[in-house]
Predict the 3D structure of the following.
Amino acid sequence: MRILYFSPQQLWPVNSGSRLRNVHLATALAKRCSVTLLRILQPEDLPQAPPETQPFEALLTARKQRSYSPGMVLRGMLGPMPVTVLNYVSTDVSSCLRAALASRPFDAVQLESSNLFSYLDVIRSAPNSPAVLMDWHNIDSELMSRYASEATHPVKRLVARRTARLISNLESKLMRVCDAHTVVSELDKRKLLEQNAAARVTVIPNGVDSAVFSPSRAAHVQASLLFVGSMDYHANVDAVLWFLREVWPGISSRFPSLTFKIVGRSPTKEIAMSASDRIIVTGTVDDVRPFYADAIAVVVPLRIGGGTRLKILEGMAMGVPVVSTAIGAEGIAATNGRDILLANSAAEITQALERVIRDASLRDELSKRGRELVCQHYDWSSIGDRLYGVYSELMATRSGLLTSQTNPA
């Protein structure tokens, strides 16, 4: 089996949730079949090679233009193509994709995100007529709608609402024209099947390498709360600023030695300016595991967003208790009070954190149960097997259809 894995971003260094999913899924497939990786670079990106032995048959690179230019936003407002797709329209990418598809016969192309919608015609015109599998990291229309509901600037709110409607229309088309779909949660699967009940949709959750992220507690656990995530992503920025405004003053006054560590690349100006002796903003770090090892709890106060939170899975794998909003924990089969503590309001999150900080037996139980959940259901090795199984079934179905068309009864 030969697969073209089409990613809208640079994959290395692995410093965001989407990159982590792409790296692990692409690598898992490359261990089981032939994979060519095509990645799209931002204008400022330098091509980065995989840190280990090259697992791919070929590694291809194309470059896009700057995102969200005023002209692009205006075109997105006028429609019919949302700006999130227009951001990725590039003659360089089209040329690279056409050349790749002409160079060898691919059985399938895996699209990573609806942002690549404009390239479907190129893929469909390929000589070998490859199948198309759409991997949904999020349901982007829902994510954009949530962003619109939280936006305070009227222009941003207007653009987001219009963009959400256009993305929703595009998603309906994807559900009709793609041969198979993978999603990160049962919740996302149900939502997509509402648009097309006949579609082939399989849950391939986000995961974690439970051997790499394993319990390694510091000799004396520091009194620190931890948030991990890309700090240029609007959902993470919103979550941290809300936490600092609504939760941190109360919890920090109750526990004067407590610190809050914000770990993630490219912190915005607002996030960077919040740093103090008790609020540590790290930016990019080489290894996030020491921060988990020193934390008394991982806090995930997300109010918007979608998909499955890799930060929760990493924290659980490291044996760190997790306190999250319901939105933050969407897509993870965790039980409130057993594997995780769910809390939505500022008062509820404060109460949950107090419980974790004061109750060592509760911390131990959450640590044990969270680790068990991750090892049983969210390890990347087993997730890779499931994804390859999706392709095996898809190829068998297509082979059967081709046979029946060639030799009609």
Q: What stands out?
A: The longest strand covers residues 34-41.
